[in-house]
Every structure is written in C-alpha cells, then in structure tokens.
Amino acid sequence: MTTVLIADDQPMQRFGFRMLLESQDDMTVVGEASNGTEAIRLVDRHHPDVVLMDIRMPGLDGIEATRRIVATGDRTRILIVTTFDLDEYAYDGLRAGASGFLVKDAQPEELLAGIRAVASGDAVVAPSLTRRLLDAYIHHLPSSATAEQNPEDPRLASLTEREREILTVIGQGWTNTEIAERLHLAESTVKTHVGRILAKTGARDRVQAVILAYDTQLVTPA
Amino acid sequence: MTTVLIADDQPMQRFGFRMLLESQDDMTVVGEASNGTEAIRLVDRHHPDVVLMDIRMPGLDGIEATRRIVATGDRTRILIVTTFDLDEYAYDGLRAGASGFLVKDAQPEELLAGIRAVASGDAVVAPSLTRRLLDAYIHHLPSSATAEQNPEDPRLASLTEREREILTVIGQGWTNTEIAERLHLAESTVKTHVGRILAKTGARDRVQAVILAYDTQLVTPA
DNA sequence: CTCCCCGTCGTACCCCGGTACTACACCGAC
DNA sequence: GTCGGTGTAGTACCGGGGTACGACGGGGAG
C-alpha cells in the first residue's frame, strides 16, 4: 500500500487528488496540507511514501518544503505537481531533491503511474520539461565512447583548406555578400562553399555551422 | 494523424507495435525496418513523424541511425524503445538526438503517450533512467537563485528573462519553428522575441546573436 | 594522358529569417 | 485608475540563405 500526502493550497485540487487516489486499491491518502509548513509537520508525523507537492503555496512554498523534508533523511519521496510546465521553479524543485515533476493537466493515469514510479524509487519528469532538460544538458551526458578532443577535430576532417577558411569567417558573423566582397569572390562561389561545408559537417544551416566552429575551436569566444 | 516508422530486427516485436499503433485512430504505421540502414532509407522516403527505434540491430545500430537521421535536419523524431533500461547505450541515444527513451516492458498506454508527446515536440524518458539522469546531473541544473547572482555581461543587461532564454536556444542552433514547438509558442511570438533581442543587442541577425551568446558565455562550447 | 578533386561562377527556385506594424492580457508602479 | 513593461499573437512583405543544377580551368595522381 502506497501512502500519500497531498500538499496544495487549493481545497478543490486536494479533493480531486484524494478522489483519484482513493479509487486505487493500492493507494491511500494519509493527510492533506495547505502550505509548506503543514506539509513538513505531516510528513514528520506520518512518513508517507510520496508527497504530492504544489509549488505555489502561501507561507512556505513547495520548493523550500521539499528541501527541508529531503534534508531530514526521511525515505519520503516528493513528487511536484504544478500548473505550469514552464514554471521557473521546476529546476529548483528537482535540485531541492524532488523525485519528479508533473503538470496538473496530465492524464490521471499519468499521475498515478508517476506516483507508483516515485514510490518505487524511480523518477518522472513531464515530457514538456524533459525536452528542455535534454536540450540543456544533452552535451553533459556521459558517453560510452571516449570523447576525443583532438586538436584536429574529426568533424572538420573532410573540409578543404578553403572551406575551413570560409567556415572561420562564417563563425565571425559575415554574410555571404560580405565574404564575397572581402575575399574577392562571386557570391555564387561563396554559396557553393557554404553548401559544401554544410553537407560535409552535417550542419543544417550557417547558425549550426557557427556553433560547430566554436565547438571545434576553429573560432574562440572574444 | 501521426505517422510512425518501426525499426526493430525482431519481426514479432514489429508486429506487436504495429497492432498497437494501428488500433489508434490518430496513428498509422508507414513502414517497418529491420536494421539501421533500412530505417534511414525509409525515413528519407516517408518522413514519418516518429521512429520507434530499437538499439540492437544487425548492421547499422539504432544509435548511429538516430545520429544520421537527426543530422539530415528532417523533422522526424526518434523514440528509442529498447529491452533493457540499464542499456549503456541509452545515454548515447539521447546524445545522438533521440527525443525519448522507453523500455519495452512499459504499459501500452505509456508507449502511446510517449509517441504522442514526441510527435508534438516534447520528450520522454523512462522513469528508471530519469532517476539516474537526475542523480548524475542534478547539480548542473540551472537555479533561478544562482542565475541572479551571475555577473551579467552589459551587452545582455537590457534583455528580459524570457529573451535571455530565447537567446540561449538560438545559441544552440534552434530554428524559429523549433523554438515555437518546443517552448509551446506561436512562431510569430518567437519572431517578436528574436526581433527584440536583435534590436537590444545590436546583433544584425541570429548568426551574430549566436556569436554574442558565446562571447558572453550565455552558452559555452561543448 | 586521363581522371578527379578543387575552386571558381552562373541560374533558378523556395523557404526561413527579419522587419514593420497592430493587438491584447496581465501586472506592478506611480 | 492610468501607465508602461512583458509576453503573447497575428498579418504582410522582402531579402538573404540554402538547394539543385550545370559549367569550366587548373593541377595532382593514377
């Protein structure tokens, strides 16, 4: 039996959660809190498996409450359930030690699955936030292949000397017209070079080519 | 209608996926591949919304196939579905550009929800992996508190929080369309933000904005 | 010598990016 | 209450960027 504590300042929201959870025969609601301080007290008393934690509550908010509950070393897991997936506090909640972050407009089944996952030690994140998380930290993910950071980056290996030259000035923000003028070329020639650079490096457009130029240290930040 | 391509070397597995997907009236299977090479070819032909990608396949595996499909700039999203959640290649798959990672023993509803999330530009990660992801990178999560303490480059001083967020993803090479999708905005809104960013920073176009993002360390080389 | 890569240039075409507006809801400051 | 900043969204327009072709001279490798 999974014991759950509901922490939300909106009574109707608590009621909805309680109805949903009580309809499951493997879950039971052991208490309701309307602010962070109350949540901490009830966790200390009941030691629930999971806390459904709202972020925006009067007095002590859900983030700080999460932080303090986690700090006690209690086995209670915190699942943050808030209204907006773009809430800036989402990151803070996870950093505070929450085991999950879901949005309130999620399907009831998703919420229930999230509670069960969190209760069993796993973690869940709303898809909309997962996207941003991955985008922000994809480059920090460990790689099974040893990351090579050679002076000659393999991503530039197939470029000719001229193409590398063009990529450098692209990385400095020049337009095709400017490149043509300053390098005494026809703009069509510049376009040909740019096209080949994109094809060889896999960059989609000159923006990604600029990023590649920085990542490979072909150009360096000012 | 969400179009899906199934890439798995086990015929029975493909059959199971196909039966599940075809039972949904908002999904249709546009093809099946038994290895990575075939998957790439079928993506190029059908441009499906989502690819259900197995990792372990003879010849070209799912990771490399993902990498190459993503590199084409095609709008196709890759959802990796594999047998073992402990598979070391999971990280590689996400780094290769996959929009999600699920395990095959997930509930059918989870799989369907994952496909829909990925098709709409979001991302999904299996709870068991999410736990490990958070544990490993929790300390790298941005904090709204620390963000305020960061010494600000004067060139970014006039930008609002939202504009800084947009500039960050511009610095990661996203197109306006992608920004709109992944941040759940209208493209016109994105253009408004981009226009204000350029006006405030003096950047001529998004290319120079990327350079500015690097120079001010709003984004850092990989 | 012949082949092929490289660098050059051209045309045609389409789409994305950027600009120039307007508009509206929200919210905090005055 | 009014005002301004912010975030959202829309329409219309145009130019640059990127693609898909083809073409040609030079030069090194076979």
Strand content of chain A: 5-15%
**What is the alpha-carbon Rg of chain A in Å?**
26 Å
Task: Flag low-confidence runs of chain A.
Answer: 139-151
CATH superfamily of the largest domain in chain A: Response regulator
Euclidean distance between termini CA atoms of chain A: 59 Å
Fraction of helical residues of chain A: 40-55%
CATH topology of the largest domain in chain A: Rossmann fold
Look at the helices and sheets of chain A and give the structural class: alpha/beta
Number of domains of chain A: 2
Q: With helices defined by DSSP (H or I, 4 residues minimum), what is the helix count of chain A? A: 10
Mean pLDDT of chain A: 81
Order of helices and strands of chain A: EHEHEHEHEHEHHHHH
How many β-strand runs of chain A? 6
Strand order of the largest sheet of chain A: 2-1-3-4-5-6
Largest interface chains and counts: A-B, 58 and 60 residues
Oligomer kind: homodimer
CATH architecture of the largest domain in chain A: 3-Layer(aba) Sandwich
> Which class of the largest domain in chain A in CATH terms?
Alpha Beta
Main β-sheet of chain A: number of strands, strand sense, barrel status? Answer: 6 strands, parallel
Write down the overall geometry of chain A. Answer: elongated
